[in-house]
Amino acid sequence: MKAEFIAPGLGSAPRKDSALQQKLLATEPVFFLDNADLAYEGRVVLNQLCLSIAPGERVALVGRSGVGKSTLLAALRAQQPRTSAWCPQQSGLVPMLSVYHNIYMGGLQRHNSLYNLLNLVKTLPRPLAEVAALAADLQLDEHLFNRVEQLSGGQAQRVAIGRALYQRQEVFLGDEPVSALDDYQAQHLLRLIVDKHRTLVLALHDVAQALHFCDRIIGLKDGAIVLDAASSSLEAEALAELYN
Amino acid sequence: MPTLSLKRLDKGPAQASPSFLSLRSSSFYVALIAGVCLLFADIEIISPNPWLELRAMGEGLLAPRIVSYSELLQGLANTLSFALQGMAVAVVAGFSMALVYRRWFIRAFCAFIRAIHELFWALIFIQCFGLSPLTGLLAIALPYAGTLAKVYGELFEETAPQPGANLLASKSLSAFFYTTLPLAWPALCHYTRYRFECALRSTVVLGFVGLPTLGFYLETALSEGYYGEAAGLLYVLLLLIASQRWWLRKGLLPLYVALAVVCLPPSANVNWPTLLQFFGEDIIPQPLRTASQQDLGPWLALMWQQQLWPGLCNTLVLSQIALLFSALLALLLLPFNSTLFIGPLLKRGSDGLLIIARSLPEYLLAFVALLLWGPSMLPAIVALALHNGAIVAHLLAGFSQQLYLRDDACRGVNRYAYEVLPRIYRQFLAILFYRWEVIMRESAILGILGIATLGFYIDSAFEEFRFDRAALLILASALLNMAVDTLARRLRRGLQLDTKADLG
């Protein structure tokens, strides 16, 4: 995604005089925003945002749709484009390729072009073993060699999660990664995602999921962060406020 | 205030700008320009007795004959071999160039090689390699590589960006092969198939300048008035093109190409001194060769006055008239090829007629019309309008079939004028502007048949071994085509016309 940077300090070295920064000097944050205005399609949706996410944090972004969760996630990804596993809301799969190849795509950067090309023409045994194991976790093993265009919406979403998992990064950015799945599967897959990554930022519309899987909740409303607290200190009713 | 914007920037300013010409006024200008051109066009019937000739042709069509099966098979094998080999080289070269199509010099190079018609390339290569298989191969491969590079490159640019953008190494070659290529693949195959059909037609036309394809035998039979024989060859050609979807299979392609190479090895007796002489000396303007630079000005002035200016004028006049009549014919044929107006059985019949009209190359149609009416612009106009009108009508009918009309929508002429035409008019103009460049290229080429467009002067220059003149004239025709290509693209953008690239 093409990002246009105008914000000073965004993505560059944090300013020393920031009060927030003083507090966090002990650990280098993974993501850091200082007074950033974030725009979607030319319109600013989040004003003067200050946010710091430290390694090891599991963050849920909650708020009504259209409030700017996806915009915030995309801005975070722009700070660490090569080291964050990315699971966007629009899965962006390649419909005419198999489940196997779509998941394998997450790991393209680990191999040279020739190896990747060969794997496109003839499935190679090592990546097959890895992807098959992952597909079994995602309950996609029956469909491994089906084309993605033949799958249902929920199945396609699990392929997109598989692709992000196969990127094998320490940081995971997910935009409603389980929105098309039933409760049981959603729980199972969120557990999988949480177990495999040290730092997470997830946009979630399901408040219970957010409280259960994340340790920090960031609530967005009217273009600003209105809530930033540990999930242990919150209850589902308190979050209902965000949606009114 | 610091801002982080995530919106993709629009590709170009022209995309966003409001249309500077409305659909209505651009149609008006197409008609007006063609009307003015008609005043200047020479459209007499010169032939003493066209009806007699027409009758002879009709009788020939009804009584086709195959004189020599070995000749027919030879011609057929050569036609297929040239087309397959030329396309194979063009696909590989075009694909490679499409990968780096963002570079301006690649785009310019492709625009240049495709702006020179395959017949002109053939005339050039005949001087270097004689009437050899290599000549035919290069004449097809070069312009087709330029066209394929452009279309493939545009298809790659038009694929959805998300799948690639979601990857960690989104700009890598691997990412291209896993996301962009599979996404573009169906359209790519579709267009390549269409282009192969064009290559078959081009190969046939190459026969008219001496290469041993079906066109060579067709030309001989036609000029000697053996219309029965010509009809036999014509039916074989139509069958070959119409049956393409049954024999042109992806899995069999390597076998076909191998057979083509075995059947017609792309060889030539390359005479290096001649080759060097041609490119190093012969095509350089004569005053420069003889070191009398002061004569270059008069030489150019004379060329401009006697050949370039009349050639350019006639090419433009012919192409504008042909464009208008193609458009009118297409609009006339449309209702007869769409199930919104006729039953499925009639549609089958009109499909067949349109396939025949668009399977026959303009050059062949013009050749036949010339036999009927003698040398004037009339045969060329009829040939160009028939061929291109049939293509536009076929594509428009395809669009119209996708329209959804209410159950109580009006019928007949009202349906055509109120429901259908307004909805597909944008596509109609888009296709028409795509065909504009093709018509311009062909208008220049038809000069070889004796109509005073650029091709006439080019052909004469080759006949007189004045290669410097030929080179200058070919360059002029290439520049004209590139200008029209650019103008047509501007118009399509300005009018926000969009169709997929499978229109050729």
Overall residue-averaged pLDDT value of chain A: 86
Q: Which CATH architecture of chain A would you pick? A: 3-Layer(aba) Sandwich
| CATH homology superfamily name of the largest domain in chain B | MetI-like
For the record, the CATH class of the largest domain in chain B is: Mainly Alpha
Taking pLDDT < 50 over at least 5 consecutive residues as the criterion, the unreliable ranges of chain A are 1-16
C-alpha-based Rg of chain A, rounded = 19 Å
Strand content of chain A: 15-25%
How would the global form of chain B be characterised? globular
Number of domains of chain A: 1
By secondary-structure content and strand pairing, the structural class of chain A works out as: alpha/beta
Q: Low-confidence runs of chain B (pLDDT<50, min 5 residues)? A: 1-20, 500-504
Question: What can you tell me about this protein's structure?
Answer:
The complex is a heterodimer of chains A (244) and B (504). Chain A is globular and about 50 Å long. Chain A has a single domain (55-243), classed as Rossmann fold (3-Layer(aba) Sandwich). Chain A has a 6-stranded mixed sheet with strand order 5-6-7-4-8-9, with helices on both faces. Chain A has a two-stranded antiparallel ribbon with strand order 2-3. Chain A contains 9 helices and 9 strands. Chain A starts with a strand and ends with a helix. Chain A is of the alpha/beta class and 244 residues long. With 504 residues, chain B is an all-alpha fold. Chain B folds into 2 domains: 19-48 and 294-504, Orthogonal Bundle (MetI-like fold), CATH 1.10.3720.10; 50-161 and 172-282, MetI-like (MetI-like fold), CATH 1.10.3720.10. Chain B contains 22 helices and 1 strand. Chain B has helices at 13-16, 23-40, 50-62, 69-99, 104-115, 118-129, 133-158, 162-165, 173-206, 214-223, 227-242, 244-247, 253-263, 272-282, 286-289, 296-333, 344-359, 362-373, 377-401, 412-445, 454-463, 467-494, and one strand at 4-5. The termini of chain B are far apart. The chains are: A alpha/beta (244), B mainly alpha (504). Strand 1 of chain A pairs antiparallel with strand 1 (4-5) of chain B, so a sheet runs across the interface.
